Amino acid sequence: DTAGQERFNSITSAYYRSAKGIILVYDITKKETFDDLPKWMKMIDKYASEDAELLLVGNKLDCEVDREITRQQGEKFAQQITGMRFCEASAKDNFNVDEIFLKLVDDILKKMPLDVIRNELSNSILSLQPEPEIPPELPPPRPHVRCC
């Protein structure tokens, strides 16, 4: 996540190359963030794999009264991109946030053969290490002593 900051342009191509999923987020209360989506799609087309899952998210649903981009505009943009999903969310209210990531991960996993998933998880930093057979020694319990 570089939040579109220009100073990170030199490293963003590396992020795209290995991405299995990409979430494009715009602010429903700021038209300029929506107007920047074609620029981001050019970056995705240039650097990302065609297999990367794409998700467009209109954020700040909690600011409905200040909305500048309609839901229909977001849906229309997403429909123009093959395979792009669309939803709206509110990070502030935690509305749809978990669902966005869970759905994206689900879509990514559905595309991957099971042996690839197992291999990638076993090579991952996030893979779980087996528990030691002998539990580590714990200090003896302290007697219940009240102070004062």
TrEMBL record:
Catalytic activity: GTP + H2O = GDP + phosphate + H(+)
Domain of life: Eukaryota
An MF annotation (GO) of this entry: G protein activity
Alphabetical list of Pfam families matching this protein: Ras
SUPFAM superfamilies for the chain: P-loop containing nucleoside triphosphate hydrolases (SSF52540)
InterPro entries, A to Z: P-loop_NTPase, Small_GTP-bd, Small_GTPase, Small_GTPase_Rab
Presence of the UniProt keyword GTP-binding in the record: yes
GO cellular component: membrane
Subcellular location: Membrane
Membrane topology designation: Lipid-anchor
Keywords assigned by UniProt, alphabetized: GTP-binding, Lipoprotein, Nucleotide-binding, Prenylation
Gene3D superfamilies reported in the protein's UniProt record: P-loop containing nucleotide triphosphate hydrolases (3.40.50.300)
Uppermost EC category: hydrolase
EC id: 3.6.5.2
NCBIfam families on file: small_GTP
PANTHER family, per database record: LD44762P
Family: Belongs to the small GTPase superfamily. Rab family.
Protein name from the UniProt record: small monomeric GTPase
Gene name of this polypeptide: Rab12
